[in-house]
Amino acid sequence: MKYNLALIGFGNVGQALAQILRDQRANLARQFGADFKIVAVCDLLKGSVCDPNGLDPATLFEAVTGTGKLETIVAPHHGWDALRTIAESGADVVVELSYTDLKTGEPALTHLRAALNAGKHVVTTNKGPIALHYAELKKIAETKGVEIGAEGTVMSGTPSMRLGVELLAAAGITRLQGIINGTTNYILTQMEAGMTYADALKAAQAKGYAEADPAGDVEGYDAAGKAVILANLLMGAALTMNDVERIGITGLTPQDISTAAANGERWKLIGKVEKAKGQVTASVRPTRLPITHPLASVGGATNALTFTTDLLGEVTLIGPGAGRLETGYAVLGDLLAIHRRFGK
Ligand code: HSE
Fold first, then answer.
1. pTM (2 d.p.)
2. CB 289 within 8 A of CB 176
3. Quick one: which of 7, 32, 178, 183 is 20 to 30 A from 290 by CA?
4. 238-283 confidence digits (pLDDT tens)
5. What is the pLDDT of residues 172-197, one digit of tens each?
6. What is the dihedral of CA 62, 23, 324, 206, to 10 degrees?
7. Which atom of ligand 1 is nearest to the CA of 322?
8. Ligand 1 mutation target, pool 101, 155, 156, most atoms within 8 A of CB
């Protein structure tokens, strides 16, 4: 089964997807019977290129890492904006990877609406539209008989959404708690090892963990967005960003961190979603944990999420929470899920 992909946004995650398809496309076709072909890429800064016959992922990757531009690639169409790319590229799946805006969800929201209304599957790692407008998007997808893949919105490629939605939903999820932002966990880990806050943040940006505007990470908005996504997609809630009690890590001083360490404790930014008496509440706040606590040993950009369920008790998932290839893998997971459901 062949799938034509249009990539909207070609930053860290889009480039990682191109890299994965460059290395794995033939193998994926052999192993799963799914052939993922990139037919268009459109990026606000790097330009756009479309070839309905397919673009070579290696060429895309090299063009962007070399010249930083897509327009130099030989192809029948250049210069299309996102909406034209969605409408005219012949894509079956729109992979939406533009920057996250947790206030409006735009421009991704407009892209996703257009793609779904045109009867195309969508895969996104963009938290904005999923945290803010999932119910509306889901309704359009159901009407059109297409899928929304959003695995990469929480814990990057570590399959937290799929675990919750497909495997633990019937166990009755009552609480989700853990480390759901990689950048802040990386910064806290580095600060405990003696690095300054500014250097740790710079390193997190260089490694591709941080949001385009890292204030989203350090002020706790990114984790709050993920808490909303977990609450709404896994617990059937209808929370908004304003419903999440949110405190970031910017108030933590090196002194706070060393005092905690001297007392056998460690600061972690903990996200929590709880259901009690039918009511779902969510919070994100720095929490001092004893070093023996299971979440205290989760360091760097690694994330961890404990699902508390009625039938199974606690199930904890630990894995990458941010990163280029890690999030690129989430997109691949969603593409394969579309193939499993529709590729008959
Ligand atoms: N900025 C996010 C983080 C990326 O650090 O967790 C993954 O969602």
1. 0.96
2. no
3. 183
4. 999 999 999 999 999 999 999 999 999 999 999 999 999 999 999 9
5. 999 999 999 999 999 999 999 999 99
6. -50
7. 7
8. 156
